[in-house]
Amino acid sequence: RQAAVADAVFLLEALLEKGRLLHSYKDGQAKLLAYLDDYAFLIDGLLALHEATFDGRWLSEARTLTEAMVDLFWDQGQGVFYDTGRDHEPLVVRPRDIFDNATPCGSSAAAGVLLRITVLTGDPEYAGLATKTLRSMRELMAKAPSGCAHWLCALDFYLSTPKEIAIVGNRDEPVTESLLTVIYRRYLPNKVLVGCEPGDNSGPRLPLLEGRSMVNGHPTAYVCERYSCQRPVNTPEALARELEPAESQEYRGA
Q: Long-range CB contacts (< 8 A, 24+ apart) of 140-149?
């Protein structure tokens, strides 16, 4: 975790120039304008870093980079992302890689982070952009699914009802750790997790954290869907029950 924080600090300090992310760094110098995948992967990493630290700074940085990504790479007329920014040197054909290979392409990575940022912020504009770029790939996802793996993950997130999980508590307290363990031991690809420490107002204002506090003085988890939350819980066992699929709960109840 310390290494991840150090990496994030380095990237945001050494590879940002006047708000513009750069692509490479060597011998103390950052150079070349970053591409779409650079932005999307860094945003994804910052969201994961927030989950690991509960530090609101990483959410703020992710939101800022998302706004820059849309401004630089989104083409409103075509309704798609391009790999080069509007400030790159003009090319005969503006490149747009749409296939997921060993790593996701920039456009599918961008769609994925936009959907997660939508849940975090409640901003429908991001969802609209993600929807348009997914629709642009509809035929290709059906014809060549093996070349669209990350696209299909983003589509699955879009079509699902993601779990919205908020945890309030000191990040390194054992009870908080036990709650997080319950979450991460499950395969929950369509989830968004945010956390904050009691009294910490340094991060951005998020719908999932508004009005959330510890219950009975203990770290507390809130499991929500579309910002409608189940009762807050303090124990791993109770959280595990709330994370069960609805059909499993119905079967147990029967």
A: 140/98, 144/99, 147/99, 147/100, 147/101, 148/99, 148/100, 148/108, 149/100, 149/104
Give the torsion through C-alpha atoms of 120, 188, 48, 71, to 10 deg. -50
Local structure of residue 24 (DSSP, 8 states)? E
Alpha carbon distance 87, 219 (integer Å): 46
What is the distance between the alpha carbons of residues 197 and 53, in angstroms, rounded to a whole number?
10
With tokens 């779990």, the residue in question is 163
CB 96 within 8 A of CB 82: yes
In a 3-state reduction of DSSP, which class is residue 105? coil
Query: Which 8-state DSSP code applies to residue 89?
Result: P
**pTM of the complete model:** 0.93
What is the SS3 assignment for 47?
helix
Q: Mind listing the pLDDT tens digit of every residue in the chain (254 residues)?
A: 999 999 999 999 999 999 999 999 999 999 999 999 999 999 999 999 999 999 999 999 999 999 999 999 999 999 999 999 999 988 889 999 999 999 999 999 999 999 999 999 999 999 999 999 999 999 999 999 999 999 999 999 999 999 999 999 999 999 999 999 999 999 999 999 999 998 877 778 899 998 899 999 999 999 999 999 999 999 999 999 999 875 444 444 44
